[in-house]
Amino acid sequence: MSSSPSFCGICDIRHISKPSEVWCPDCEEGLCAECIEYHSLVKLSRGHITIPIAEYRKLPSYVLEIKEHCSEHNGKFQLFCNEHGCPCCGICIMENHSECSDVAILENIVKDVKTSDVSNEIEQLINEMTEIICKIRQNRETNSSAVREQKIIIENEIREFRTKINNHLDKLQEHLMKELTEAEKHITEETRDLMVSLDEKQKKLSEHQTNIVNIKKVCIRPTNIYCRKNNRETRRNSRHVSTVNNQQR
Fold first, then answer.
1. Could you give the 3-state DSSP secondary structure of residue 66?
2. 21, 53 in Cβ contact below 8 A?
3. Are 130 and 122 in contact (CB under 8 A)?
4. Closest to 226 measured CA to CA, from 238, 216, 239, 237
5. Which helix (H) or strand (E) holds 103?
6. Strand order in the sheet with 86-88
């Protein structure tokens, strides 16, 4: 549609800028409050149906782009060629559609658009598509909710399983630490007892060594008896120390 809907087309010709109150599809221009009255009185335009400019702005862009007049011949579209699917002015019919057999009066086609089969079919199709979209959306939302719920269940199961593993490892660690502590205690006690025994053996050996040195200085018969006895005891201590030494290897 040629004229700007924001300003009155008639006033614009007079170089006056006034905001439009209504839009006339037949004239393809906006009208201010003052020009609406003249528009409704003039014979050529008194039958035109105007649209409040607020309602006009709500129309989709493809509707606003529809022309009421032929751009080639500057005549108003009065006919519609169904074979070519286009509106035509009188000159268009004579020049380009003279051989077309399926030509209808445009006004008859447009006036019943609200109740026509095509309009009802389109509306029904839109309703069906809207319903399908709603079902798809609902299905997707249900699936998303199910996935979220399943995710929560799996996360809880993983946390529970991990807790069980941690508890088992804690018990295993506690058991091993207890065994290590007991083993350490046992070895410590054995080592302490062994050290006491070795100290006693070493003390006796030192005593025997001292006695032997003193006996050598005095050569009397009883010394031989002591030496034999000391030799047997020393050998027993030697065997004991060797056994302990072998166990440490």
1. coil
2. yes
3. no
4. 216
5. strand 103-105
6. 86-88, 79-81, 103-105
The candidate with the shortest Cα–Cα distance to 101, out of 77, 79, 82, is: 82
Profile the chain (249 residues) by mean pLDDT over runs of 10 residues.
Answer: 75 91 88 91 88 88 77 85 88 88 81 65 86 90 89 93 94 94 91 85 78 65 53 61 59
Phi, psi at residue 218, to the nearest 5°?
Answer: -120, 115
pTM beyond cutoff 0.70: no
Cα Rg of the chain, angstroms: 59
**Domain 1-68 top-level CATH class:** alpha beta
CA 100 → CA 80, 91, 110, distances in Å?
Answer: 11, 14, 20
Sequence spans of domains, the chain = 1-68, 69-111, 125-248
